[in-house]
Design goal:
- This protein is mainly α and 180 residues long.
- Helices cover 66% and strands 0% of the residues.
- Helix 3 packs antiparallel against helix 6.
- The N and C termini lie far apart (43 Å).
Length: 180
């Protein structure tokens, strides 16, 4: 029984082929410009406002939308929907369970995962966005549901605009694969 269970972990397919230098370069350019745009807005335009647009989950989104552009998880519906849905769920989990954060955290992530699945917006960094709403500290808690708009909504729309521009410059790349 244990052997059969362990045999399930051997893998059934081969590793994907290596990525060429051109693809690596365009992924780098996209990630630099996307995170750079969010960073510029956060540190220059929003300085002193109490808002930020810098979230750790955006780093993971950058890997997907600039480095794995054909992945279903990197498409606009998933990027925007997954983050915003997860942000709303994370804020709700915090508000319902703020006195027991060890419950609020798994409720936020698990519920965000389930709702992203149900709405066809699965975007793995969304789980981190939900978790940040719970563990992000007073500055995040003070935002309440505004967290879903700024930093989350504004940040992902900024990154999406950069992805639409950069990912379609080379003839070898096309983004998005689908919208809805």
């Amino acid at each position: 029984m244990i052997v059969r269970y362990l045999n399930k972990m051997t893998g059934m397919t081969k590793s994907p082929p290596a990525v060429g230098m051109t693809e690596i370069l365009w992924s780098w350019v996209g990630a630099f410009l996307g995170i750079g745009a969010v960073s510029l807005i956060s540190y220059k335009l929003l300085a002193g406002t109490g808002f930020t647009m810098m979230l750790g989950s955006f780093g993971a989104s950058a890997v997907l939308i600039y480095g794995a552009i054909k992945s279903p998880l990197a498409q606009p519906r998933n990027l925007v929907g997954g983050h915003i849905i997860s942000a709303l769920i994370g804020v709700t989990a915090y508000q319902l369970f703020s006195s027991v954060l060890w419950i609020a955290a798994p409720v936020a992530v698990a519920t965000a995962l389930a709702v992203m699945h149900a709405t066809k917006t699965l975007h793995p960094p969304g789980g981190a966005t939900a978790l940040i709403a719970v563990i992000g500290g007073q500055s995040v808690y003070n935002l309440g549901y505004l967290y879903a708009l700024v930093p989350v909504g504004a940040g992902v729309v900024t990154m999406l605009l950069v992805a639409l521009l950069v990912n379609n410059i080379p003839k070898s790349r096309r983004y998005p694969e689908f919208w809805i």
